[in-house]
Q: What sequence folds into this?
Protein backbone atom coordinates (compact mmCIF):
# COMPACT_ATOMS: atom_id res chain seq x y z
CA UNK A 1 0.00 0.00 0.00
CA UNK A 2 1.41 3.42 -0.95
CA UNK A 3 0.80 6.16 1.59
CA UNK A 4 1.49 9.87 1.45
CA UNK A 5 4.13 10.75 4.01
CA UNK A 6 6.94 13.24 4.49
CA UNK A 7 9.72 12.35 2.04
CA UNK A 8 11.90 9.45 3.12
CA UNK A 9 14.70 10.06 0.62
CA UNK A 10 17.32 12.71 0.21
CA UNK A 11 19.86 13.62 -2.47
CA UNK A 12 23.08 15.55 -1.89
CA UNK A 13 24.88 17.58 -4.55
CA UNK A 14 28.15 19.52 -4.49
CA UNK A 15 30.02 22.47 -6.03
CA UNK A 16 33.77 22.48 -6.58
CA UNK A 17 34.65 24.46 -3.48
CA UNK A 18 33.76 22.68 -0.27
CA UNK A 19 32.03 24.90 2.31
CA UNK A 20 30.51 27.55 0.01
CA UNK A 21 27.29 25.65 -0.49
CA UNK A 22 27.15 24.86 3.23
CA UNK A 23 27.10 28.53 3.98
CA UNK A 24 24.36 29.10 1.41
CA UNK A 25 22.14 26.10 1.98
CA UNK A 26 23.21 24.32 5.17
CA UNK A 27 23.77 21.14 3.13
CA UNK A 28 27.03 19.24 2.84
CA UNK A 29 27.66 18.81 -0.88
CA UNK A 30 29.69 16.21 -2.75
CA UNK A 31 31.56 16.19 -6.04
CA UNK A 32 31.75 12.81 -7.81
CA UNK A 33 35.55 13.17 -8.07
CA UNK A 34 36.14 14.31 -4.48
CA UNK A 35 37.56 10.92 -3.47
CA UNK A 36 39.71 10.49 -6.60
CA UNK A 37 40.56 13.87 -8.24
CA UNK A 38 43.08 12.32 -10.62
CA UNK A 39 40.35 10.26 -12.28
CA UNK A 40 38.96 13.39 -13.93
CA UNK A 41 42.26 14.16 -15.61
CA UNK A 42 42.46 10.57 -16.85
CA UNK A 43 38.86 10.80 -18.10
CA UNK A 44 38.16 7.72 -16.09
CA UNK A 45 35.44 7.04 -13.54
CA UNK A 46 36.62 7.44 -9.92
CA UNK A 47 37.10 4.10 -8.18
CA UNK A 48 35.78 5.47 -4.88
CA UNK A 49 33.08 8.13 -4.43
CA UNK A 50 31.93 9.85 -1.27
CA UNK A 51 28.23 9.09 -0.96
CA UNK A 52 27.27 10.85 2.28
CA UNK A 53 28.88 12.87 5.09
CA UNK A 54 29.11 11.54 8.62
CA UNK A 55 26.72 12.78 11.29
CA UNK A 56 23.86 15.27 11.20
CA UNK A 57 23.33 17.80 8.44
CA UNK A 58 20.45 19.96 7.22
CA UNK A 59 18.86 19.72 3.79
CA UNK A 60 17.86 22.78 1.73
CA UNK A 61 14.22 22.47 2.86
CA UNK A 62 15.24 22.55 6.52
CA UNK A 63 15.01 18.86 7.35
CA UNK A 64 17.78 17.41 9.48
CA UNK A 65 19.38 14.07 8.60
CA UNK A 66 21.74 11.84 10.52
CA UNK A 67 24.10 9.45 8.70
CA UNK A 68 25.94 6.64 10.48
CA UNK A 69 28.37 5.26 7.86
CA UNK A 70 29.01 2.07 9.87
CA UNK A 71 25.27 1.32 10.02
CA UNK A 72 24.77 1.80 6.29
CA UNK A 73 27.87 -0.23 5.41
CA UNK A 74 26.70 -3.09 7.66
CA UNK A 75 23.25 -3.08 6.04
CA UNK A 76 24.85 -3.20 2.60
CA UNK A 77 27.07 -6.12 3.64
CA UNK A 78 24.07 -8.01 5.05
CA UNK A 79 21.96 -7.51 1.91
CA UNK A 80 24.76 -8.64 -0.38
CA UNK A 81 23.33 -6.70 -3.34
CA UNK A 82 25.27 -4.17 -5.42
CA UNK A 83 23.61 -0.74 -5.55
CA UNK A 84 22.92 1.06 -8.84
CA UNK A 85 24.20 4.47 -9.84
CA UNK A 86 21.89 6.04 -12.38
CA UNK A 87 21.23 9.41 -13.98
CA UNK A 88 18.99 11.89 -12.11
CA UNK A 89 17.57 9.21 -9.75
CA UNK A 90 15.94 7.28 -12.59
CA UNK A 91 15.92 4.09 -10.49
CA UNK A 92 13.52 5.74 -8.04
CA UNK A 93 11.52 7.99 -10.34
CA UNK A 94 11.08 6.00 -13.55
CA UNK A 95 10.77 2.58 -11.92
CA UNK A 96 7.64 3.80 -10.13
CA UNK A 97 5.95 4.00 -13.53
CA UNK A 98 7.41 0.80 -14.95
CA UNK A 99 9.86 2.66 -17.18
CA UNK A 100 13.40 1.53 -17.91
CA UNK A 101 16.02 2.94 -15.54
CA UNK A 102 19.41 1.55 -16.62
CA UNK A 103 22.36 1.86 -14.27
CA UNK A 104 25.53 3.63 -15.38
CA UNK A 105 27.59 2.11 -12.58
CA UNK A 106 27.38 -0.24 -9.60
CA UNK A 107 28.45 0.30 -6.01
CA UNK A 108 30.12 -3.01 -5.15
CA UNK A 109 31.43 -2.05 -1.70
CA UNK A 110 30.69 0.48 1.04
CA UNK A 111 33.31 1.75 3.44
CA UNK A 112 32.81 3.82 6.59
CA UNK A 113 35.54 6.47 6.87
CA UNK A 114 36.19 9.25 9.31
CA UNK A 115 34.40 11.89 7.23
CA UNK A 116 31.55 9.84 5.82
CA UNK A 117 30.35 6.94 3.71
CA UNK A 118 32.33 5.95 0.61
CA UNK A 119 31.42 3.56 -2.17
CA UNK A 120 33.62 1.56 -4.50
CA UNK A 121 32.15 1.88 -8.00
CA UNK A 122 32.36 -0.32 -11.06
CA UNK A 123 31.56 2.19 -13.81
CA UNK A 124 29.83 1.14 -17.01
CA UNK A 125 30.71 2.74 -20.33
CA UNK A 126 27.64 4.98 -20.15
CA UNK A 127 28.72 6.33 -16.75
CA UNK A 128 32.27 7.08 -17.86
CA UNK A 129 30.87 8.82 -20.93
CA UNK A 130 28.63 11.07 -18.83
CA UNK A 131 31.43 11.92 -16.42
CA UNK A 132 33.84 12.67 -19.26
CA UNK A 133 31.30 15.01 -20.84
CA UNK A 134 30.84 16.70 -17.43
CA UNK A 135 27.08 16.92 -17.94
CA UNK A 136 26.38 15.14 -14.62
CA UNK A 137 29.38 15.44 -12.32
CA UNK A 138 27.77 15.51 -8.90
CA UNK A 139 26.91 12.47 -6.84
CA UNK A 140 23.53 12.31 -5.07
CA UNK A 141 22.66 9.40 -2.76
CA UNK A 142 19.11 8.24 -2.12
CA UNK A 143 18.69 7.30 1.55
CA UNK A 144 15.77 5.85 3.45
CA UNK A 145 15.41 7.22 6.98
CA UNK A 146 13.09 7.06 9.99
CA UNK A 147 10.87 9.83 11.35
CA UNK A 148 13.83 11.29 13.24
CA UNK A 149 15.94 11.64 10.11
CA UNK A 150 18.20 8.70 10.97
CA UNK A 151 19.32 7.09 7.70
CA UNK A 152 19.07 3.30 7.83
CA UNK A 153 19.46 2.22 4.19
CA UNK A 154 21.24 3.43 1.10
CA UNK A 155 18.87 2.66 -1.79
CA UNK A 156 20.95 3.94 -4.73
CA UNK A 157 22.92 6.91 -5.96
CA UNK A 158 22.70 9.18 -8.98
CA UNK A 159 24.82 11.40 -11.16
CA UNK A 160 23.11 14.80 -11.29
CA UNK A 161 23.79 17.90 -13.31
CA UNK A 162 23.61 20.99 -11.12
CA UNK A 163 25.53 21.97 -7.98
CA UNK A 164 23.63 22.71 -4.80
CA UNK A 165 23.65 26.48 -5.32
CA UNK A 166 21.73 26.15 -8.62
CA UNK A 167 19.23 23.39 -7.77
CA UNK A 168 16.01 24.28 -5.99
CA UNK A 169 15.10 20.72 -4.92
CA UNK A 170 18.41 19.38 -3.66
CA UNK A 171 16.71 16.94 -1.29
CA UNK A 172 14.55 15.23 -3.93
CA UNK A 173 11.47 16.47 -2.10
CA UNK A 174 9.23 15.35 -4.97
CA UNK A 175 9.65 11.73 -3.85
CA UNK A 176 6.82 11.75 -1.36
CA UNK A 177 5.87 8.08 -1.35
CA UNK A 178 7.34 5.07 0.39
CA UNK A 179 6.61 1.41 0.66
CA UNK A 180 4.53 0.17 3.56
CA UNK A 181 7.03 -1.63 5.85
CA UNK A 182 4.43 -4.30 6.66
CA UNK A 183 3.88 -5.01 2.97
CA UNK A 184 7.64 -5.20 2.35
CA UNK A 185 7.97 -7.71 5.21
CA UNK A 186 5.14 -9.80 3.76
CA UNK A 187 6.73 -9.77 0.31
CA UNK A 188 10.10 -10.76 1.79
CA UNK A 189 8.50 -13.66 3.68
CA UNK A 190 6.72 -14.84 0.52
CA UNK A 191 10.05 -14.87 -1.30
CA UNK A 192 11.65 -16.93 1.44
CA UNK A 193 13.76 -14.02 2.73
CA UNK A 194 14.08 -12.68 6.26
CA UNK A 195 11.55 -10.04 7.34
CA UNK A 196 14.21 -7.33 7.48
CA UNK A 197 15.33 -7.96 3.88
CA UNK A 198 15.75 -4.77 1.88
CA UNK A 199 13.74 -3.72 -1.14
CA UNK A 200 16.77 -4.39 -3.33
CA UNK A 201 17.01 -7.95 -1.99
CA UNK A 202 13.32 -8.54 -2.72
CA UNK A 203 13.66 -7.18 -6.26
CA UNK A 204 16.70 -9.39 -6.81
CA UNK A 205 14.79 -12.44 -5.60
CA UNK A 206 11.86 -11.64 -7.90
CA UNK A 207 14.23 -11.23 -10.85
CA UNK A 208 15.85 -14.57 -10.12
CA UNK A 209 12.43 -16.19 -9.79
CA UNK A 210 11.31 -14.83 -13.16
CA UNK A 211 14.53 -16.03 -14.77
CA UNK A 212 13.88 -19.58 -13.59
CA UNK A 213 10.66 -19.89 -15.57
CA UNK A 214 11.66 -20.92 -19.10
CA UNK A 215 8.79 -20.18 -21.53
CA UNK A 216 9.38 -23.54 -23.23
CA UNK A 217 9.19 -25.34 -19.89
CA UNK A 218 6.05 -23.40 -19.00
CA UNK A 219 4.35 -24.37 -22.29
CA UNK A 220 5.41 -27.98 -21.86
CA UNK A 221 3.83 -27.99 -18.41
CA UNK A 222 0.59 -26.58 -19.82
CA UNK A 223 0.55 -29.21 -22.57
CA UNK A 224 1.12 -31.94 -20.02
CA UNK A 225 -1.76 -30.67 -17.88
CA UNK A 226 -4.00 -30.63 -20.97
CA UNK A 227 -3.00 -34.21 -21.86
CA UNK A 228 -3.55 -35.45 -18.32
CA UNK A 229 -6.94 -33.72 -18.19
CA UNK A 230 -8.00 -35.45 -21.43
CA UNK A 231 -6.81 -38.81 -20.12
CA UNK A 232 -8.68 -38.32 -16.85
CA UNK A 233 -11.86 -37.36 -18.71
CA UNK A 234 -11.60 -40.46 -20.93
CA UNK A 235 -11.01 -42.66 -17.89
CA UNK A 236 -14.02 -41.21 -16.07
CA UNK A 237 -16.17 -41.74 -19.16
CA UNK A 238 -15.06 -45.38 -19.43
CA UNK A 239 -15.73 -45.96 -15.73
CA UNK A 240 -19.20 -44.46 -16.06
CA UNK A 241 -20.05 -46.60 -19.09
CA UNK A 242 -18.90 -49.72 -17.26
CA UNK A 243 -21.25 -48.92 -14.38
CA UNK A 244 -24.17 -48.36 -16.78
CA UNK A 245 -23.52 -51.64 -18.60
CA UNK A 246 -23.30 -53.56 -15.32
CA UNK A 247 -26.53 -52.03 -14.04
CA UNK A 248 -28.51 -52.80 -17.19
CA UNK A 249 -27.13 -56.33 -17.47
CA UNK A 250 -28.15 -57.02 -13.88
CA UNK A 251 -31.62 -55.63 -14.58
CA UNK A 252 -31.97 -57.85 -17.64
CA UNK A 253 -30.87 -60.93 -15.73
CA UNK A 254 -33.32 -60.12 -12.94
CA UNK A 255 -36.02 -59.67 -15.60
CA UNK A 256 -36.75 -56.13 -14.36
CA UNK A 257 -36.49 -54.91 -17.95
CA UNK A 258 -36.57 -56.53 -21.37
CA UNK A 259 -33.88 -56.17 -24.06
CA UNK A 260 -36.09 -53.78 -26.03
CA UNK A 261 -35.87 -51.29 -23.11
CA UNK A 262 -32.11 -51.40 -22.75
CA UNK A 263 -31.27 -48.46 -25.04
CA UNK A 264 -33.93 -46.28 -23.44
CA UNK A 265 -32.57 -46.89 -19.96
CA UNK A 266 -29.02 -46.42 -21.23
CA UNK A 267 -29.98 -42.94 -22.47
CA UNK A 268 -31.40 -42.11 -19.03
CA UNK A 269 -28.04 -43.12 -17.51
CA UNK A 270 -26.08 -40.66 -19.67
CA UNK A 271 -25.00 -38.56 -16.68
CA UNK A 272 -23.91 -39.52 -13.14
CA UNK A 273 -27.16 -38.06 -11.84
CA UNK A 274 -29.23 -40.07 -14.33
CA UNK A 275 -27.35 -43.24 -13.41
CA UNK A 276 -28.13 -42.66 -9.76
CA UNK A 277 -31.86 -42.17 -10.50
CA UNK A 278 -32.15 -45.33 -12.63
CA UNK A 279 -30.23 -47.30 -10.00
CA UNK A 280 -32.72 -46.11 -7.36
CA UNK A 281 -35.64 -47.04 -9.63
CA UNK A 282 -34.32 -50.56 -10.27
CA UNK A 283 -33.95 -51.05 -6.52
CA UNK A 284 -37.71 -50.62 -6.11
CA UNK A 285 -38.62 -52.92 -9.01
CA UNK A 286 -39.32 -56.67 -8.73
CA UNK A 287 -39.02 -59.35 -11.37
CA UNK A 288 -42.51 -58.70 -12.70
CA UNK A 289 -41.73 -60.36 -16.02
CA UNK A 290 -41.62 -63.84 -14.44
CA UNK A 291 -45.22 -63.62 -13.32
CA UNK A 292 -46.73 -62.38 -16.57
CA UNK A 293 -47.52 -65.89 -17.92
CA UNK A 294 -47.29 -64.61 -21.45
CA UNK A 295 -45.80 -67.84 -22.76
CA UNK A 296 -49.00 -69.78 -22.05
CA UNK A 297 -51.45 -67.05 -23.08
CA UNK A 298 -53.31 -67.25 -26.36
CA UNK A 299 -54.03 -64.22 -28.51
CA UNK A 300 -57.68 -64.23 -27.37
CA UNK A 301 -56.76 -64.20 -23.66
CA UNK A 302 -57.84 -61.27 -21.55
CA UNK A 303 -55.52 -58.24 -21.80
CA UNK A 304 -53.03 -58.16 -18.91
CA UNK A 305 -53.36 -55.37 -16.39
CA UNK A 306 -50.33 -53.11 -16.00
CA UNK A 307 -48.93 -52.73 -12.49
CA UNK A 308 -48.01 -49.46 -10.77
CA UNK A 309 -44.34 -50.26 -11.44
CA UNK A 310 -45.10 -50.68 -15.15
CA UNK A 311 -46.73 -47.28 -15.25
CA UNK A 312 -43.78 -45.71 -13.38
CA UNK A 313 -41.42 -47.14 -15.99
CA UNK A 314 -43.65 -45.80 -18.78
CA UNK A 315 -43.56 -42.38 -17.17
CA UNK A 316 -39.77 -42.35 -16.92
CA UNK A 317 -39.33 -43.55 -20.48
CA UNK A 318 -41.93 -41.14 -21.78
CA UNK A 319 -43.74 -43.76 -23.87
CA UNK A 320 -47.39 -44.60 -24.33
CA UNK A 321 -49.09 -47.64 -22.85
CA UNK A 322 -49.47 -49.12 -26.32
CA UNK A 323 -45.72 -48.80 -27.01
CA UNK A 324 -44.92 -50.24 -23.62
CA UNK A 325 -47.20 -53.25 -24.18
CA UNK A 326 -45.63 -53.86 -27.59
CA UNK A 327 -42.11 -53.65 -26.12
CA UNK A 328 -43.02 -56.17 -23.42
CA UNK A 329 -45.01 -58.53 -25.62
CA UNK A 330 -48.32 -57.70 -23.89
CA UNK A 331 -51.70 -57.65 -25.55
CA UNK A 332 -52.48 -54.28 -27.05
CA UNK A 333 -55.98 -52.90 -26.84
CA UNK A 334 -57.84 -53.23 -30.10
A:
Amino acid sequence: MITKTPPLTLSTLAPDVHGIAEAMTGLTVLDAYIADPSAAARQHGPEWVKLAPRGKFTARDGRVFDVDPELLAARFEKDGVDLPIDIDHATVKKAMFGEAAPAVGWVSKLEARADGLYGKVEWLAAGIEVLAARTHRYISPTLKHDENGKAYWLHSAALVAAPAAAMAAVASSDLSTHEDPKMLKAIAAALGLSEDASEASCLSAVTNLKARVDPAVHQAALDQVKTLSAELEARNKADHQAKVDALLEDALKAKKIVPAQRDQYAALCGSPEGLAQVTALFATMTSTLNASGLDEKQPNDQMATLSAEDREVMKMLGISEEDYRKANGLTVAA
